[in-house]
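agent> fetching stored inputs for the guanosine-5'-triphosphate docking request
agent> found them:
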Amino acid sequence: MDNSNIRNFVIISHIDHGKSTLADRLLEFTNTIDSRHMKPQFLDSLELERERGITIKMAPVRMIYNDYILNLIDTPGHPDFSYEVSRALAAVEGAILLVDVTQGIQAQTLAKFYAAKKQGLKIIGAVNKIDLAKTFNAEKQIKELAELIGCQFEEIHKISGKTGEGVQQLLTAIINEIPPPKALILNYQFSISNFGRALIFDSFYDDHKGIIASVRVFSSGGGDEFKSGDDVQLIAANEKFKIKELGYFSPKLKPSGKIMNGEIGYIATGLKDPEKIKIGDTIIRCQASSVRCQDFALPGYSEPKPVVFVSFYPDDADNYEDLKNALQKLKLNDSALNFEADFNEVLGRGFKVGFLGKLHFEITAERLEKEFGVEVINTFPSVAYKIKKNGEFKIVENPADLPDDFDEISEPMINIEIIAPTDYLGNIFQLKENFGMENIETKNMAERILITAEMPLSELISDFDDKLKSVSAGFASFNYELSGYKTADLKKMQILVAGKPVAGLVRVIPEEKIEREARKMVEKLKDILPRQQFSQAIQAEVGNRIIARETIPALKKDVAGYLYGGDRSRKMKLWKKQKKGKKKLLGMANVKISAEIFKKIIQ
Ligand code: GTP
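agent> prediction call returned; pasting tokens
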């Protein structure tokens, strides 16, 4: 079937530059959503997205406009969700690169631009929030964006997602400039017709329809549409199924009986086992039994590498299976999530979960609670360290697994790019020491400055984000990528309560910060831990050396209170007995830290 009237595109930008608001206007202009049902950031459908005002998930929608089929994918802006963006980019032919006129080009504008360019997409530039341009210099921003894209000043669209100004012209440009889906000609000795292939770029779970795959159908040159009831196969999973239902995103699921070649839509698999669906797998309809389906797999995606590790435990041991189930279902919808079984002496059975960043971790904990009703208790976020012991290298993802002695330890480093107004350069430089930034270079970009540096990933997941925002009045933005491992002077710190180490409170800390962190930790524990019949020592230990200590006094019980008057020797006897009892208790003490208290400690 002819697909010259199909346009597939994404909207990409830095955080908050107005992607979802522009998508709202496109939904309105194309009458996809009735104005009575319209609400701001319509495509941000997760409760959490609406609560936090950020996009977490890409959201596809099919619109019809002047006989054209426009498949749009709205994308998240935060770097922790860039895997969502990369998968969306691989499903389309064009991208609208949006820049907020009040902010100009930011770190994520650059990152998203280069990703779209690498994918070979047609990029249409647009400056947004033009309704605010009276107070901001739109000319300058337009010029900068045109330079970045390599197009003429006049080719940059001036739009307002809020008022709708310029959106009609942008729609026309989408139709005129973005190419229709191209056939992916198969490099195969047989000539096969009607050989549908669909790339799974996302998935989610439906209680009735089973796992639903969001797909982009790629043509091999023939009439390659998928129909309801087709017998198909998942190539990587080597699993066959009959298509239960398929259709388009409108943006709700709209069954259609078929998805045309070159289009974006969904396929309900009827499969219930989340393990069967892999993002990047190809769904194929094998017509001829003589061909090996494996030869037709679409390129798929490279697996994202988790960089932050946190262990999750159910708030109640009985909820372990619920947590497992929830993680499996969430992984369908968040393929960047990685997890494996874990055990903690205090918190019991749980999972060590790998994330793409700190926000990814926070959002996941919240999604588990909001979407699956599962509350979790977590350990401190950590990165994966590399240690050298007896000449052998080993990656350690959980600080508790770090041996007490080793020859060398190295930590993951990042190359960070910060863009900020020039006035804030001095303030940002003040962060240098605290966050271990090295090899700093700067480059002028009109009234802004691009700062590049190398720093430990562990610093990024501490409070770097907040500190950068506060020293730049919110104007600085950053992007980063892993650059490798670097040896560092790091120490393993463990916390002992009443002489016993508390599992889950082990951390790896740079030597120069360890005393401060140890003090903070023991003081916090002193405030949080309940008093017992005996006094409890809280100690921070680094390599058999106690570097900070606090004591929680015992609960006071006046054992001699009932003795009136002066029988001093009787009182002394009772006090001595009490002291002995407490000593005995302390010897047997197994201070049980409840899950609730553990949660407070980690907070
Ligand atoms: P993320 O997906 O989280 O990166 O955000 P986004 O790029 O989708 O931005 P969003 O559409 O959520 O808009 C961010 C803020 O900018 C919201 O408060 C919008 O109301 C506002 N906004 C978006 N477009 C315009 C515009 O054209 N004019 C004005 N004045 N405000 C706008």
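agent> quick read of the result: Residues 13, 15-21, 41, 54-55, 76-77, 128-129, 131-132, 160-162 surround guanosine-5'-triphosphate (CB under 6 Å).
agent> awaiting further instructions
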